[in-house]
Amino acid sequence: MSSDVVGRWTVSLADGIHKVEFEHGTLSGKRVIRVDGKEIYRVDWMFKLVGTEYFNIGKVKCSININATTGFAYEYSLLVNGQVFEIFTENQRKILNTWIVTIAGNPLRVALEKDTLDIWVNGEKAETTAEFVENGTETHFEICHHSAYIKASSSGNRKSGIVYTFILLHNLSIYLSIYLSIYLSIYLYIQRTKQALLTGAIFPNVCRYRPFCL
């Protein structure tokens, strides 16, 4: 790991959680930006040691500001969508609801943008269908061939506002198909074993008609 790493931030967006890393060489002016471990920007030498570097995380605009403090010390700040990182993070907590669900042993991240009602599954925007129900709305979508929906209902408390509940409906047809496949395999194994016993394929030295053996 480079000793020039001066800043690390974890940015929570609708399409997932991203890690931003920034290197700054205070002698060479080197600047390197990595997002999720992938290098997206590099300058190995720069005369000016302060300034701003711009980059994107997907469609989200970001920038890193480099400011001199005292002597040869510098401070670094990340802006996301024009907001200081700390303020952006706080706002994201207000407009973004996330759930982690495990299907077939794989953890999946489901995110709801409350301001747009868009739903994201592991970074992919899901196709949704909304309908009005008693005491709220339900937004339906699919996740790994399973039906799911997010229900929005009133909490009855003005301070709490709307409560969002994620519900996963397991696809019974998948489990039924697996069960039938296992049952059929066992049935065929039993039938083959019976046939082998009758023909003496398993115990060739045992007479099939014992009373007539000499």
Number of domains: 2
Q: Supply the number of helical segments.
A: 2
Q: How many whole angstroms does the radius of gyration measure?
A: 30 Å
Shape: flat
| Widest sheet: strand ordering | 1-2-3-4
The CATH topology name of the largest domain reads Lipocalin
Q: What distance separates the N and C termini?
A: 83 Å
Short description:
The chain crosses the membrane at residues 162-190. The chain has two domains: 5-81, Lipocalin, CATH 2.40.128.180; 90-168, Lipocalin, CATH 2.40.128.
Features:
Lipocalin, 18% helix, single chain, four-stranded antiparallel beta sheet, 50% strand, alpha+beta
Helices and strands in order, then pairings?
Blueprint: E1 5-13, E2 16-24, E3 31-35, E4 38-43, E5 51-57, E6 60-68, E7 74-80, E8 83-84, H1 85-95, E9 96-103, E10 106-113, E11 118-121, E12 124-125, E13 129-133, E14 136-143, E15 146-154, E16 162-169, H2 172-199
Antiparallel strand pairs: 1-2, 2-3, 3-4, 5-6, 6-7, 7-8, 9-10, 10-11, 11-12, 13-14, 14-15, 15-16
Provide a descriptive summary of the structure in words:
With 214 residues, the protein is an alpha+beta fold. It folds into 2 domains: 5-81, Lipocalin (Beta Barrel); 90-168, Lipocalin (Beta Barrel). It is built from 2 helices and 16 strands. β10 and β11 form a beta hairpin. It starts with a strand and ends in a 15-residue tail after the last helix. The relative contact order is 0.08.
